[in-house]
Design brief:
Layout: H1 2-32, E1 42-50, E2 53-55, E3 58-62, E4 66-73, E5 78-82, E6 87-91, E7 100-106, E8 111-116, E9 129-135, H2 138-161
Parallel strand pairs: 1-4, 3-9
Antiparallel strand pairs: 1-2, 4-7, 5-6, 5-8, 8-9
Helix pairs in contact: 1-2
GO molecular function, one term: cytochrome-c oxidase activity
Pfam family, one: Cupredoxin_1
Subcellular location: Cell envelope
């Protein structure tokens, strides 16, 4: 009988250690937030700039996606500046120059971000805007919540059945 009690204490001790590790890991995940290098897929967009508008005016990606924007112009020089990411590319149309500029970045911040023309292109230049929508990484948030709940339930189990 003594061996059985010792074995039960050993199992309970392991459960306590395991529960504490799960709880601490999930708590750290909430404190630090999602990892900066969230891996996603590559999303490529061709945006055409023309007389005070972008086509398409809205692009949507997932947090962690690598975004490639190919900006083209059908009339005069234009550019693109994405607020919140502080990235910019100017497309200056001149003889012998390419009619495309490429912007690459990782969409690591969720939210809606305005992009606007970064080259003065005429009287309605201030109104030449679009929106980059970056959807949050729900998989990370769900896994973090599940880890916290698992830790809490393990501790509750130990508190109730440890006697």
């Amino acid at each position: 009988m003594g061996g059985l009690i010792r074995g039960k204490k050993k199992v309970n001790g392991m459960l306590v250690v395991f529960s504490a590790l799960v709880f601490l890991t999930s708590a750290l995940a909430f404190i630090t937030g999602p990892a900066k290098a969230v891996t996603g897929s590559t999303k490529e967009f061709v945006i055409t700039a023309r007389q005070w508008a972008y086509d398409p005016p809205v692009i949507e990606v997932e947090q962690g996606d690598e975004v490639i924007i190919r900006l083209k112009s059908t009339d005069i020089s234009h550019g693109i500046y994405i607020e919140g990411y502080d990235i910019r590319a100017d497309l200056i149309l001149e003889e012998g120059m390419p009619n495309e500029v490429v912007l690459k970045f990782v969409a690591d911040k969720p939210g809606s971000f305005i992009f606007r023309c970064s080259v003065n292109c005429g009287p309605f230049h201030p109104f030449m805007t679009g929106v980059l929508k970056v959807n949050p990484n729900y998989a990370f948030q769900g896994a973090s919540i599940l880890a916290v709940l698992t830790g809490m339930l393990s501790l509750l189990y130990l508190a109730v059945f440890r006697r």
